[in-house]
Amino acid sequence: MLIKILSFILLLQACAPGVMIKKDKPMPLPSVFIPGQTPAKDSTADMAWDKVFKDQVLIGLINEAMAHNQELKILEQNIAIANNEVLARSGEYLPKAGIKANTGVEKAERFGKEGANEPLHFGNAAGVMTWEVDIWNKLRNATKAAYYEYLASLEGRRFMITNLVAEISSSYFDLMALDNELQIINNYIDLLEKAQSMASAQQRAGRATSLPVKRFEGEVLKNQARKYKIQQKIVVAKNRMNTLLGRYPQEIERDPKAFQNYSIAKIKASIPTKLLDNRPDIRRASYELEAAKLSVSSARAAFYPSLSIDAEAGFEKFNSAHFTTPVTALYGVAAGLTMPLLNRRAIKAQYYTANARQVSAVYDYEQTMIKAFAEVVNQLSKVQNYTAMYDLKSRQVQALNEAFEVSTLLFRSARVDYIEALLTQRDALDAQLELVETKKQQLTAVVDLYKALGGGWRAQDESEIAKSNY
Known about the structure:
Blueprint: H1 2-15, H2 49-52, H3 56-68, H4 70-90, E1 96-106, E2 120-133, H5 138-204, H6 211-244, H7 275-278, H8 280-300, E3 306-319, E4 328-338, H9 344-412, H10 418-452, H11 463-468
Antiparallel strand pairs: 1-2, 2-3, 3-4
């Protein structure tokens, strides 16, 4: 008989469907980011952000965001939820014990045998235990899957920290760039007003008409309106930073004068496979892939028989009058074997769903790696190009400033037309604004490269979070 039962179980195992699509070898990363480039031995991504950024004001702002940013707090609660799911799953394959107690009265039908219609008082109390034996590792695999989901949530928090550090840094540079643009516009307005005064003096002396006066006046008014536009951008930038810092709108400490000479530690990129260790989004996708694989194994085990053991031990007492009879001991042990027969279609649907999620997790892992690699290549190129661009723009600004000084002297002595002086002033203004924008893009590119390499989360002490989740 036992041989028949075992044969039937093995037959049920054979009836479990196979995996529809098997894709468990993700695309490997290339050996280098840019062909011909020699990778550094150590990646800057291994450094904490407070070692990469030397600006103490920026470091203070980032620290404040780590302490008060609401999105980060929400992620921490999601981590706690994921950890609770692990605890709940781990309790499912352990025996469940409890205590039960019953009391009541039983009375037979009116027309029963003699004495049977007398009320019967009873009471019992017992300890009970039930245990589903995890013979196919269905429950353990589900627990491991929940644990990998918990690890993925930790990586999600680290990814949020990386993005938060980059966003605060970029917003900080954007704000200082706007301050410099505002200062350039103010200086330009002062120069235009002086040119307008010279044109007015030439008009009074009969050496010019009112046309240059009105042209310079129009240029002054245009840039005064432009100034208010920049001031509005500054307000928006400050409030964006305050939102990231988790506080109401207030002033942001900064030093705009240090912007043009601002520098960040040189970011070094090592071999691409370091992304697997440094990028939290890749690590998260990896954990989610492992969780999906275990979910498939757990869903497959639903096709197999489940073994449960129930036990009960306690005391029971009966008496038709006042419970005067002696207490009777009660105990019992039972084992049950449950096999799915009629609901296999629902189990197949759950299994196919788990398998599809596994395949989707593989593609998500590959896509995450491709995006990460492309981001690093883009930012490496951006840092190099904007560094060269800034050098050229600096030389352009110097040349146009010299041309502006010459045109001012010539216009004062009426040796050049006011149009030429005005265009020279405009060219100098545009070049100065472009230089500020290029500097901002250069600094942002360095920050984005640091982020793309997976840096920015190692300065955080996660011990307190770990303690709160266990």
